[in-house]
Design a protein that fits this description.
This protein is an alpha/beta fold and about 300 residues long. It has two domains: about 190 residues, Rossmann fold (3-Layer(aba) Sandwich); about 110 residues, SIR2/SIRT2 'Small Domain'. The chain contains eleven helices and 13 strands. A six-stranded parallel β-sheet has the order 6-5-2-10-12-13, sandwiched between helices. A three-stranded antiparallel β-sheet has the order 8-7-9. Bound molecules: nicotinamide-adenine-dinucleotide and zinc ion. The site of zinc ion (ZN) has 8 residues, from loops. The site of nicotinamide-adenine-dinucleotide has 26 residues, from helix 3 and strand 12. Belongs to the sirtuin family. Class III subfamily. Its main location: mitochondrion. One of its GO terms (molecular function) is NAD+ binding.
């Protein structure tokens, strides 16, 4: 299976993009996408196992900027440079400020119509003996808060911490996560670092451990959780319809999930505000904000009796 054992990374150069697109083309063939919602709805009505792959775009209408909308920066730093183990060991205060900013934003956000349409559809289909899984690159928990039950978070979760000393992983929804981060994390490029001493950053309270905590997310250069990946593989192998929602598909290995499904001949429907270079590889493409398109796509079909 192609997605195993791959580390999280972003495509950086046009050259690399070109070679990856060639790989996607080889995987999926050159189908022409259509945007016939009525046709999609017929396919949807017959699907028994639906996989929905989501990215930052699904949370955009909840007020959480996508990395690209925020021009990929927090203050003066590229987000992909901040979200690394190297940067955390060099400057844990700066990295915690960055994650504190995201945690506070996500805590205040409410699920969008897109999150709600997905959750409502899952609940409805489960009564009909049909299944839906959300495979998300997002770390904001908005799918769960909307009511989705079957969610695989491939890049971890902003509201979990991992202790660097004892390895304990814990849920953590404190706001702020520690007193020293109160009022910190302003993304303005003119804002200075808080330079919080390491002893005042979030610490482990497990049996007096007091080790430094990190966010339990997958940083660039780190390997995805193999248990989560195994579940993702199973779902991608079993699905008979796949929706790809609000993702630029430039973060690997998640960018390979939809092409892998399409290569089995399973219809993939992309929902994005703009066409992307790989759009032509998928059967359907619905352009527009997913909070408008998804509720139509996933609404009760006339053939659904329960
Ligand atoms: N909310 C979050 O948890 C969050 C937010 C930003 C980034 N991230 C992380 O950053 C990485 C970036 O990857 P990504 O591809 O998910 O995001 P991205 O920022 O690279 O791309 C977002 C995609 O969503 C599309 N989009 C924006 N608004 C949309 C809307 N209203 N409806 C439909 N599509 C819309 C854009 O055209 C783009 O293709 C991921 O690994 C993710 O973990 C997460
Ligand atoms: Zn600990």
């Amino acid at each position: 299976m192609i997605i195993r054992q791959l580390t999280r990374r972003t495509l950086r150069s046009p050259l690399e993009c070109g070679s990856q697109l060639a790989a996607l083309k080889a995987l999926t063939g050159a189908a022409r996408p259509n945007s016939d919602m009525a046709e999609f709805r017929e396919v949807f009505s017959k699907a028994k196992h639906i996989a929905i792959i989501t990215g930052a775009g699904v949370s955009a209408e909840s007020g959480l900027p996508t990395f690209r909308a925020a021009s990929g920066h927090w203050r003066r730093w590229k987000t992909q440079d901040l979200a690394t183990a190297q940067e955390f060991s060099r400057n844990p205060s700066r990295v915690w400020e960055f994650y504190h900013y995201w945690r506070e934003l996500a805590l205040k956000a409410t699920p969008s119509e897109a999150h709600r349409a997905i959750a409502e559809c899952e609940a409805r289909l489960s009564k009909q003996g049909r299944s839906m899984v959300v495979i998300t690159q997002n770390t904001d928990e908005l799918h769960r808060r909307a009511g989705s039950k079957h969610v695989l978070e491939v890049h971890g979760n902003l509201f979990k911490t991992r202790c660097l000393s004892c390895g304990d992983v814990d849920d953590n929804h404190h706001s702020p996560i520690c007193a020293a981060l109160q009022g910190k994390g302003d993304p303005d490029p003119k804002c200075s670092d808080a330079d919080i001493p390491v002893r005042d950053l979030p610490r482990c309270d497990e049996g007096g451990c007091d080790g430094l905590l990190r966010p339990d997310v997958i940083w660039f250069g780190e390997t995805l959780d193999s248990h989560v990946l195994t579940k993702v593989e199973k779902e991608l192998d079993a699905c008979d319809l796949c929706l790809l929602v609000g993702t630029a598909s430039v973060v690997f290995p998640a960018a390979l999930f939809a092409p892998q499904v399409a290569s089995r001949g399973v219809p993939v429907a992309e929902f994005n505000i703009r066409p992307r270079a790989s759009t032509s590889r998928y059967k359907y493409h619905f352009q527009g904000p997913c909070a408008s398109t998804l509720p139509i796509a996933l609404a009760r079909h006339q053939s659904e009796v329960i």
